[in-house]
Amino acid sequence: MAIYFTFWKGERFFALEIEVVEGVSKLEELTPADWGPDWLVGFTFFRGQTVPLIDLEGYLGSASPSAAKYIVVSRSEEVLGFGATRLGTHYETEETPEPLEGFSAGFKGQLLLGGRTALVIDPLGILREGGRK
After folding, report:
1. The CATH number of the domain where 39 resides is what?
2. Quick one: pLDDT at residue 124?
């Protein structure tokens, strides 16, 4: 059985395996990253750590008009934050994510959670691939 934590960024619904979620916090301070890819919004702090903040809509190549209110922090090999406009809940399921075609590396697939299709994030894939398709 797998447990997923869910959140929204804009209109998109995302999920992370609960064991990689280090925590959630309101986004208080952000240092912009003008030198990086568009989807790297900047850096913030979480529990004394500097955390790069990823805009998942931008990572997917979409315009991202909505500002993030929260940061969902994930730990795999390194800490990585994801901007969220709205927090969801957690879901338990025995299903495995269905593969996605045409999506950037960094997604394990899609999964039906709470009656909605969630894009399941692979934080390690985002770190490794950096948005390459």
Report:
1. 2.40.50.180
2. 86
